[in-house]
Give the backbone structure.
Amino acid sequence: MPQLSIAIVAGLGGMLGWGLADFFAKKTIDELGDVATLFWSLLIGSVPLGLLFLTNPVVPEKLTGAGGQGFLYLGVLGVWIALSYLPLYAGFGKGKVTLLSPVFASYAAVVVIISAALFGETLSVNHLAVLALIFVGIVFITGDIKSLWSAAARREPVGGLKEILLAVALYAPWLVALDRFIGGEYWVPYLLGIRIVSAFTVFCYTRVRRISLAVRQRSLWKYLCAIAFADVTAFAFLSWGYSASSSISIITMLSAAFSLPTMILAILFLKEKVTRSQLLGGLIVVAGAMVLPLV
C-alpha cells in the first residue's frame, strides 16, 4: 500500500476510534469523573493489546539493545502521555469546552510544524493547503464560533486556557517522539508498554490527590470497556501509520478530526442539535479527506 494511502487510512482510523471514545465518555465522565474514566480506559485497554502481543510475542531489538535504554525511553513516553492528559482534563474542568477545544485541536498544527522544521518532513503545497482546510473544519466543529469571536473581542480571560496550552505543549511533541521511536518497527509492544506505564502514572496521581477510582454503578463498566477499546483502536491505527508511513502530518491532522464522528453519533443517537458552523466544519473535514488522495 502506498505511504499516502497508509497515512490516510491510519488518520481516518484514529478519527473514528477517538470519536467513538468521546461519545461513550459522555456517559461515564459525569458519573465517574474525568481522571477515573481515564485510568480505567487505560487499564482496560491494555488487555486487548496484551492478547494481540501474545499472538506475536516479539520484542524489537530497539527495546532490548543498548543496555535497555529503549525500555527507559518507552517508560518516559508512558509517563509523558499521562502528564499530557492531566492538564487537559483539568483545563476542561475549569473552562468552557467550546472555547478550549479549538485551542487543544491546535496540537495537530503544532505537529505539522515540528515535523517539518526539525525532521524535514516534506509536503506539497496542495497537501499543506488541504491540511489547513481540515484544521479550519476541526475548529468549526469543536468550537462555538460566535463565542470565540465574542471572547476575543472583549479580551476576557478564558478559564482553563493555561492548562490547555500546557496540554498542547506536551501532547504535540509526544506524538512526534512516538513517531520517531516506532518508525519502521513492530508497534504492538511499544503501545502496550506505553499504555501500562501511563495507567500506572495516572493511578499514582489518583493516590496523591485522593481521587476515588470506585465504579459503583455496574452499568458503567460496559461504557468503560467501549471507551477503552475505541481508544486502543485509535492508537493502534496511529501507531501502525507512524511505523509504516513517514506522513506524520497527514495522520495526525486527520485523526485530530475525531469530533466529527462524535457529532454524527450524537445527532443519530442522542438527538442533539448542531449549529450551522458545526455542520459547515463537518462538511469541510469530509471534503478535505476526500480531496487529500487526489492532490
About this structure: Residues 3-32 form the longest helix (30 residues). The chain has a mean pLDDT of 90. The chain has one domain: 3-294. Residues 3-294 form one domain.
